[in-house]
Amino acid sequence: MADTVSLHVRLTNYYKVRDALMAKQNLYRGAFRDTIKRMLMEMRNYAHFITHRETGVLAASHDINYNPRRLSGYVYPSDDRPKLVGRRTQYPSEYGTYEHARGGDHAFYQRALDERGHEVGMGGVNMMIDYLS
Questions:
Q1: E-strand spans in 24-103?
Q2: Measured between alpha carbons, how far is 58 from 83 in angstroms, rounded to an integer?
Q3: Is 80 in contact with 63 (CB distance < 8 Å)?
Q4: Residue ranges per structural domain of the chain
Q5: What is the pLDDT of residue 2?
Q6: Poorest-confidence range of 33-37, 52-56, 123-127?
Q7: 63 Cβ partners below 8 Å, 6+ apart?
Q8: pLDDT tens per residue, range 55-65
Q9: Which of 23, 68, 94, 127 is the most exposed, having the fewest neighbouring CB atoms within 10 Å of its CB?
């Protein structure tokens, strides 16, 4: 089976941020979760927006997976809504990998990272700063 395409979001320098947050009294403990999930949702929404639409199945298939132990997550094409083409079922993860590999404006996750990655990352930084203030 071919590898599927995905876009990963990770919190780096976790221990430095954690120590700063722990020094603050009455801090909301879901700060990391909320920040990463918000970043994932923004990247997913943008990938959905820029994905080429023939049937809309691939664009609608973008989903997120959050891992609280690693403080990370990723956006990926989910196979919850396969598409029937003739006698063959096409899965968004398979077609998404092919479409992304075409490159250029077809590479939806690379485009999302290039076009919105910095903005979403800074939004995450600002969200963490808000928790500290």
A1: 62-67, 72-77, 83-85, 88-90
A2: 9
A3: yes
A4: 7-132
A5: 47
A6: 52-56
A7: 44, 75, 76, 77, 78, 80
A8: 888 998 999 99
A9: 23
Q: Is the pTM of this model over 0.85?
A: no
Q: What are phi and psi of 65, to 5 degrees?
A: -135, 120
User: Is 66 in a helix, a strand, or coil?
Assistant: strand
Both tokens of 80, joined, read 């919850």
- H/E stretch holding 7 reads strand 7-10
pLDDT digit string (tens) for 32-41?
Answer: 889 999 999 9
Helix (H, G, I), strand (E, B) or coil at 131: helix
Q: Which amino acid is at 81?
A: R
